Amino acid sequence: MIDDDEAVLRYLQIFFLQAGRFEVKSLADSRRAVDTIRDFSPELIVLDIDMPEVTGIDVLTHVAELPNRPEVVVLSGVEDVKTAVRAMQLGAYDYLTKPVDADKLLITVDRALERRSLKSEVEQLRGRLNQEGGDSPFARIVTRAPQMLELFRRVEIIAGTDNSVLIWGESGTGKELIAHAIHNLSRRKNTQLIAINAGVFAAELFAAEFFGHTKGAFTGAVAARDGILEKANGGTLFLDEIGELSLPIQVKLLRVLQEGEYSQVGSTENRRVDVRLVTATNKDLRHEMERGNFRTDLFFRLDVCSVYVPPLRDRQGDLPLLAQYFVDKYARIHSRPVKGISEGALAVLADYPFPGNVRELENLINSAVLLETSNEIQRGSLPQGILDAAHTDRPATADPAGRETGPWQQSLEEMARAHIERVLTHTEGNRSAAARILGISRVTLAAKIKQYGLET
Q1: For the packed helices 175-185 and 146-159, what is the interaxial angle rounded to 10 degrees?
Q2: What is the pLDDT, as a whole number, of residue 265?
Q3: If you write DSSP's letter for every residue of 165-212 in order, what string do you get?
């Protein structure tokens, strides 16, 4: 806590100690801020702005350059919009004005520390990925969800066999990454994994590409050519979108699984092949069997071991982790100053079902990083379709269990954000008028607009 007012420091010291969760240090002489921050290594700084010689903005400027910078909550008696905006630009988590409500201060501190913890986890994850690289079978899968960690344990067991594996789940969940993990954990890890998308080939082309063909087997076959099966011999073959295969090709694939034999297009000669087959689908293959589109005998040959990859909306804790991970990734790629994602924008993402799952989130963050001009992704940088689909402020409905849901089940922060947004719409963006209606100062409103990502 850095403040030139000794009375404020004593109050804050007692307040945080009574909370029973913090180790605290107070500093009245801001000239010693740099040395104290270096020696104490705080996770969070509660910072006054209007101090002699070394101001709060000076301290923020220094903190912004630290490699493992602490979060900063500004607590100032200065109601100045330009100063508040400058503090936010330098990375302050929030800008509160004195006197501040104790509960509000504690909530703000806790949320700032949660954001720091998330960023720290992403940094640790990146360090692990850089260190392990391709050596870790799950290196490319960013997660902390219990369902995914349980999936990893299942994959480790399955990978040690030569059984066929069927990976199923929605598009964009990372099924191909799981296939690579299975291969890298198997006895075939020193051989190659051949991955193809069964859905991109027309039925007549797939047979020639998959099994190979002899010279003259069809128009344009000017030379004999080995197929994908031959290239994968001894290794692992990953067939994505297995549900797209035509019934005639399914028959030939079944023969490969049953007998380890196949013949090229245009040939009657049988060839032997040794492959570990891993397949994936986003279709309900049992439903496809009922409709006559998928062979029952092939399904049970493919589904010796089954792996279900849950959608992003069911992966507890993964959305903020992945969002921050992709922010860091694309900020580096595009050389943009974006460091994180605002609570307002994150609330919108949390309310969106992500039918395209992790792939859709990655593409969304990639675009938002390019569009964002501040140091945090705001709601305005999100696609309009995402904003329209989010239903934080929709009227009451019923969940699958029949329980009513509605505004009363929103958090206080969500309700406050929605109300501020409505008032700003009513005043056509006039912040002075909005502040009067809300009963808060203009500088507090500016800070709230920043916090909730309501800038346009």
Answers
A1: 40
A2: 83
A3: EEEE--TTS-HHHHHHHHHHHSTTTTS-EEEEEGGGS-HHHHHHHHHE
Q: How many other β-carbons are positioned within 10 Å of the β-carbon of residue 150? A: 11
- Domain 314-451: top CATH class: mainly alpha
- For domain 146-309, the CATH architecture is 3-Layer(aba) Sandwich (3.40)
State yes or no: pLDDT of 385 exceeds 90.
no
Coil vs helix vs strand at 42: coil
In the chain, which segments carry CATH 3.40.50.300? 146-309
Q: Which of 168, 194, 183 is nearest to 134 (CA)?
A: 183
Residue whose token pair is 């982790």: 321
Query: For 70, which DSSP code?
Result: P
Residue-wise pLDDT for 205-231, tens only, equals: 788 888 888 887 777 777 888 888 889
The tens digit of pLDDT for each residue in 75-127 reads 988 777 788 888 887 888 888 888 888 888 999 899 889 888 888 887 777 66
Is residue 147 over pLDDT 90?
yes
Residue ranges with strand state E in 214-349: 225-226, 236-240, 261-262, 271-272, 276-281, 305-308, 340-341
d(CA 372, CA 272): 56
Cβ-in-10-Å burial (0-12, 13-18, 19+) of 187 comes to exposed
Q: Which two tokens stand for residue 446?
A: 């500016």
CB 57 within 8 A of CB 86: yes
Which part of the chain is CATH 3.40.50.2300? Answer: 6-124
Tally DSSP H helices, then E strands, for the chain.
19, 16
Q: State the DSSP code for 265.
A: B
Q: Is the peptide bond before 248 cis (omega within 30 degrees of 0)?
A: no
266: left (phi over 0), alpha (psi -120 to 50) or beta: left
C-beta of residue 232 within 8 angstroms of C-beta of residue 276 = no
Alpha-carbon distance of 211 to 218, in angstroms, equals 14
What CATH number is given for 6-124 in this structure?
3.40.50.2300
For the chain, how big is the Rg over CA atoms in Å? 29
Q: How far apart are CA 275 and CA 163, in angstroms?
A: 10
Strands 44-47 and 261-262: unpaired
Structure tokens at 177: 């990454």
Residues 6+ apart with CB under 8 A from 329: none
Exposed, middle or buried: residue 280 (CB in 10 Å: 0-12, 13-18, 19+)?
buried
Phi and psi (nearest 5°) for 94?
-155, 160
Query: Which helix (H) or strand (E) covers residue 27, if one does?
Result: none
